[in-house]
Specification:
single chain; 10 helices; alpha/beta; Beta-Lactamase; 30% strand
Length: 294
């Protein structure tokens, strides 16, 4: 049962009915205590149904995590947990304790981001970064919600099917949606996944254990992540990674981005925009102009 099906069984009928309309177009379901549900689709959103009281909201979120706050505690400290199909549930509310041991005590709202495979969405990216000698290491930039994870997943599948050994550092369980270490989403026949492990450790582990041709990682965002990418490049491993940013100019304001680019670990920068999954431009490092889709 996928996440939308689970939600449909948990939500009031007035909200569940909204999920039944064009479910393939739904990208997010946002639930807020004492307010109607918000259903976000490609190109629009709407408030639907009756207001959901705090106790039923907590029961819904608890059911999505199989009534086990303890098992999800480490994830919840980051403000989210991930479903078995790769959908991410972000949570807000009251947290208790200091920064190191913050613990969610009351849920006020939840954002369910629906994970879906879109085979073929990485066609343009893969065509541009494949070369006669291998792959150009690539950094994918976009604001949240523009399909970076979906694009990376399809790139992993395509490269794996093309004969590359693909290593996936899936810290947040979204790229491959592993269950007991086994991917539940299609990431290709030659892909290996390190699931639920911090990206720097996962990348180094993958290189030592599986000798990949390319490592794929989502939402790079620290100096430690950048150094792991540089290590991979020094080992002759290509890297395809993503980061939150409006574009190259905004990304370069972050010291870790500048360091990884200056170090030569990245050979191309792709910027998403216009609509989810669309490559707005792709710049090959050292070239003056960027490729833009027709």
């Amino acid at each position: 049962m996928d996440t939308l099906e689970r939600l449909s069984k948990l939500l009031p009928d007035s909200v569940a009915g909204g999920l039944a309309t064009a479910p393939a177009e739904i990208t997010e379901v946002r639930l807020r205590a004492n307010r109607p549900a918000q259903i976000v689709r490609q190109g629009g959103e709407a408030l639907v149904g009756e207001a959901i009281a705090p106790d039923p909201l907590r029961q819904i979120v608890s059911a999505l995590m199989d009534h086990s706050f303890y098992a999800r505690e480490l994830e919840l400290r980051e403000g989210f947990f991930t479903m078995e199909d790769g959908s991410r549930v972000g949570v807000c509310g009251r947290f208790a304790g200091g920064a190191a041991e913050a613990r969610l005590t009351n849920i006020g709202s939840a954002c369910v981001r629906i994970a879906r495979a879109h085979p073929g969405c990485a066609d343009a990216l893969v065509r541009q970064i494949r070369t006669e000698s291998g792959l150009k290491s690539t950094l994918i930039l976009s604001p949240p919600g523009y399909g970076k994870t979906t694009l990376l997943r399809d790139a992993a599948r395509q490269l794996s099917e093309a004969g590359f050994r693909v290593g996936i550092a899936d810290e947040r369980h979204e790229l491959a949606a592993c269950h007991l270490g086994v991917p539940t989403l299609d990431v290709g026949p030659r892909s290996d996944v390190v699931d639920g492990c911090a990206k720097p450790q996962a990348i180094r582990w993958m290189i030592r254990a599986m000798a990949p041709d390319v490592v794929i990682a989502d939402e790079i965002g620290s100096e430690a992540d950048a150094e792991a990418l540089a290590d991979a490049a020094r080992c002759g491993v290509a890297v395809i990674a993503s980061a939150h940013a409006e574009g190259q100019g905004a990304a370069l304001k972050r010291p870790w981005v500048r360091s990884v680019l200056d170090g030569g670990a990245i050979g191309a920068i792709a910027v998403l925009g216009g609509r989810p999954g669309r490559i707005q431009s792709l710049r090959i490092m050292g070239e003056a102009s960027a490729w833009k889709p027709a």
